[in-house]
Amino acid sequence: MAGVVSHLRWVEHSWFEVLFLGGPAEGPHFEEEPEDADMMVEGIPLAQLLEEYERQCAVSNEIVAAHSLDDVGRHPDFGSAAASLRWMLIHMVEETARHAGHVDAIRELLDGEKGSY
Asked: Which of 32, 50, 58, 105 has the fewest Cβ atoms surrounding its Cβ within 10 A?
C-alpha cells in the first residue's frame, strides 16, 4: 500500500513538474535501476509518504491553476511532454483511479468486506 502512495507522488511530480514545466528529470521514474524504484519504500513511515503525496498534489494543483488546459508540456527530451495539460490531467485521473482500484482489491482480500454504497 505504501508503495502505491509513493508511486502516485512520483507520477504527479513527473507529469507536472518535469514533463509539463520542463524541470530536471530527477526522481525514481527517471532511474534505470532498480525497476519500480518509486514503489520501494522500506523504512519510510507511511505518514511521511502520505505527507509527501499531499504536498506533491498541492504543487500539481498550483501548476494546473496557473496554466491553460490547452498548454502543452515543455520538456525537450520526452515525446510525452507534447501532450496538453488537459490530457495530462485526464491521465492522472486514470492513473489514480487504477491504483485506487488495486488498493481496494487488496483491502477486500485482507478484510473480506466488499466496498459498496
From this structure: 32
**Closest to 26 measured CA to CA, from 48, 44, 99, 37:** 37
- DSSP, collapsed to helix, strand or coil, labels residue 36 as coil
C-alpha cell at 46: 507511511
Residue with cell 485482507: 110
pLDDT in tens, 49-91: 999 999 999 999 999 999 999 999 999 999 999 999 999 999 9
Among candidate residues 3, 80, 8, 71, the one with its CA nearest the CA of residue 42: 3
The stretches of the chain forming alpha helices (DSSP H) are 2-12, 46-65, 85-111
d(CA 108, CA 111): 5
Contact 23, 55 (CB under 8 A): no
